[in-house]
Amino acid sequence: MLLDTASLYFRAYYGVPESVRAPDGAPVNAVRGLLDFIARLVQDHRPDDLVACMDADWRPHWRVGLIPSYKAHRVAQETATGPDTEEVPDTLTPQVPVIEEVLDALGITRLGAPGYEADDVIGTLAVRAPGPVDIVTGDRDLFQLIDDARAVRVLYPVKGMGTLAAFDSAALRDKYGVDGAGYADLAVLRGDPSDGLPGVPGIGEKTAARLLAEYGDLAGVLAAAEDPFSGLTPVRRRRLAEAGPYLAVAPRVVRVAVDVPLPEHDPALPAAPRDPGALAELADRWGLGGSLQRLLAVLAGR
Question: In Å, what is the CA distance from 137 to each residue of 1, 157, 256?
């Protein structure tokens, strides 16, 4: 099981009231919400291995160099030598280091890579995994990793972790008209305002799916745009031609990297905390209460 950790703690932050606080009054809604999420996931799905994948760089410079608008609207401060600072709610930012410390004390593997997003870590681990993989994320970009042959699916939260939509190839085709390999091409054509990707004007999700169904993949669509005898309308042909500079670089930005250099790690889910003393101190300091106890009980009962 691979967790898109930031996606989940953002969801926890907005789903759990900010009135959930530590003894010193600091909000811990994202921390406790994430612990409850993990407990529910482990209880319901019983994974042998679990990795909390992290954004070492949420806006990699190599992606920005190709498409400068990539996530630009979410930048709080640009940094020349390292990751840009993301615009995050003031009361969430201090909770992220607490999440990291708690995961480390529990012994739940936390993995990131300099210059890469959590999506790229997930993609690399999914490709390397010898067995079935469940990717837990609220980010549709990771639908591109769905692969029935390798038993890679996405568990997409509909309402908390209690209601997850399980996406395999059939579910993906039913909703979007493409399989996992085709989803990245669909995302390139459609664009994504939340990531600052313009897409091709006039080509939305349904039109992109129809084009890919007719011409096979993005390369086939672009070949049809250059073929005067293809069935593309003049308007669509013109729009694809005008979007040429974007389409030349967008696939590299949209496609999840699957060759990220990762450190040695043990993904096995622990039955007991790695550092009980540190975990007890964190529990007392931050008032983790029932959320931590529920997770510990689930881990011990596997």
Answer: 11, 7, 14
Q: In what helix (H) or strand (E) does residue 51 lie, and over which residues does it extend?
A: strand 51-53
For 23, the token pair is 């003894």
Instruction: Please choose, from the candidates 191, 251, 186, the residue with its C-alpha nearest in 3D space to the C-alpha of residue 212.
Output: 186
Provide CB contacts within 8 A for 175, sequence distance 6+.
Answer: 167
pLDDT, tens only, 90-144: 899 999 999 999 999 999 999 999 999 999 999 999 999 988 999 999 999 999 9
Contact between residue 189 and residue 218 where contact means Cβ atoms under 8 Å apart:
yes
**Segment (H or E) for 158:** strand 152-159
Q: Mean pLDDT over residues 246-250, rounded? A: 97
**What's the predicted TM-score (pTM) here?**
0.94
Long-range contacts for 80-85 (Cβ within 8 Å, ≥24 apart)? 82/57, 83/56, 83/57, 83/58, 83/59, 84/58, 84/59
Assess contact for 16 and 30: CB atoms under 8 A.
yes
CA distance 214 to 196: 27
In angstroms, the first-to-last Cα distance of the chain is: 15
- Residues 277, 102: Cα–Cα separation, whole Å: 11
Band of pLDDT at residue 232, cut at 50, 70 and 90:
very high
Contact 4, 154 (CB under 8 A): no
- What amino acid is encoded at 112 in this protein? G
Concatenate the DSSP letters of all residues of 62-131 into one string. Answer: HHHHH-TTTTGGGEEE--SSSPPEE---TTTTTHHHHHHHHHHHHT-EEE--TT--HHHHHHHHHHH-SS
pLDDT at residue 190, as a whole number: 96
- Interval 65-93: pLDDT, tens: 999 999 998 886 777 666 777 777 889 99
